[in-house]
Amino acid sequence: MKKTVVLSLLISGGMHVQAAELQSWPQGKAAVLPANSTIQVINIWATWCASCRSEMPMLSRWYLQQQKSGKGRVAVAGVALDTEANLQRFTRQIKVSYPLYRYTGADSRAWMRQFGNSIGGIPYTQVRAPECGFQQSLIGRLTEDKLNQALAAAKKQCAQRKIHI
């Protein structure tokens, strides 16, 4: 019988997830999403989802702009609900500039509910700033405007709480 290790994800304010359910890509090792940023953008997607595929280049550019600007710390993580083979084919065709992970568990809908996605639809993105209690869900195809608005809202809430980001 295998032992299951439960890891606490700091970015979710104590949410628990099975370690074996999330793997770093392409390493394929058990992983947790990074918690070292003031603002986190978690994008849940799949290669078979047309809207997901179409938003990836924009999200990659947006992420690189955030990294270059040096204005606050923003981390982006993409979590694929897909097979290893599909993810491998996709990442050969489309260059992704931010870290990718692959969900490998048996119940992606239950897993997504932990991120506030109660309907289980994708693409689904959550923007959060745990230090100041900000969390915003974006369902459907992302745009740069939607991301910038969520980022501005996070910064505003943090400023109101006198937390510098």
TrEMBL record:
The keyword Signal applies. It comes from the Bacteria. GO terms for biological process: cytochrome complex assembly. Residues 1-19 form the signal peptide. It holds the Pfam family AhpC-TSA. Transmembrane segments: none annotated. Coiled coil: none annotated. Residues 11-156 form the Thioredoxin domain. It is found in: Cell envelope. InterPro entries: AhpC/TSA (IPR000866), Thioredoxin-like_sf (IPR036249), Thioredoxin_CS (IPR017937), Thioredoxin_domain (IPR013766), Thioredoxin_ResA/DsbE_sf (IPR050553). The keyword Disulfide bond applies. GO terms for molecular function: antioxidant activity; disulfide oxidoreductase activity. Keywords: Cytochrome c-type biogenesis, Disulfide bond, Redox-active center, Signal. One of its GO terms (cellular component) is cell envelope. PROSITE patterns: THIOREDOXIN_1 (PS00194), THIOREDOXIN_2 (PS51352). PANTHER family: THIOL:DISULFIDE INTERCHANGE PROTEIN DSBE. This is Thioredoxin domain-containing protein. It comes from Snodgrassella alvi.
